[in-house]
Amino acid sequence: MSEDTKKNRNRSPNYPYLSLGDTIDKTCIVLEKDKLSPTSPEVIVGHLGYTNLNGTSRRVLAAMKDYGLLEEVGNKRYKVSNAGYKLCKNNETPEERLKLLKEAALSPYFFRHVIEEYKGDLPSPETLIDYLILNKEFSPDGARSLQKVLRETVELANINSEDFVVKYQDREKNPANAGQGQQQGSDWSSIFNDMLNTPSKENVTKGNTLPPEAAIKPLFKYSVPLSIEREVNAQLLITGQSLKRRDLDVLAKKVKDLLDAFEESDEKTTEQ
To answer: What is the pLDDT of residue 59?
Structure first.
């Protein structure tokens, strides 16, 4: 067995280091210190009691970003997001707060993937750990850690099968929502359609809906063939008033999310 194989067997996929509840607590500390002012990662982890950016403090920072409680505002500076602010201030109605908690809990891709795998009803800790080790190449320690963090997050956000009934029934009634030319219900296509049908964070923050296509100013349009043999093509259309580097950073993250969701393997996928 090669050294690379041994290392990969002991390395678990990325997932939030902290439960949603613990991450909200840390977000509130940052909010109390800096309000909504952008600051550096070093300052943020300093507020949380860490002396510098190390392995642990970076994972805490990543969890805050994964849950959508911390957002980048350019030049590697971050601030508490609108969702983080609302969850800390707790001025919302119980219904609105629960919705914010559910959205945050389902923000990390891997959490969303596992929760959807079980339609919101997680199995026993032993079964979930077994699933993560056998199907997702987690180390035993990583699987035990993830199942604990995930279970605490699911309980806090009160996620259950009812959260998925409407979603899946809607896809069954509207096959177009499941992705053209792809198998309905496949993990990567459902995530991709969620990306397409979810308004940007900026619009959600402002409480706006996306404007009609005719009213949007096109800024950039690009088309590229991905596979001539399978007639797969990609079209990129960027619209709005102006284009900035941080907009492309967001786009790059969305593409990475799609790559993470598209778990293609020789055993599971047959080229068409």
So the answer is: 95
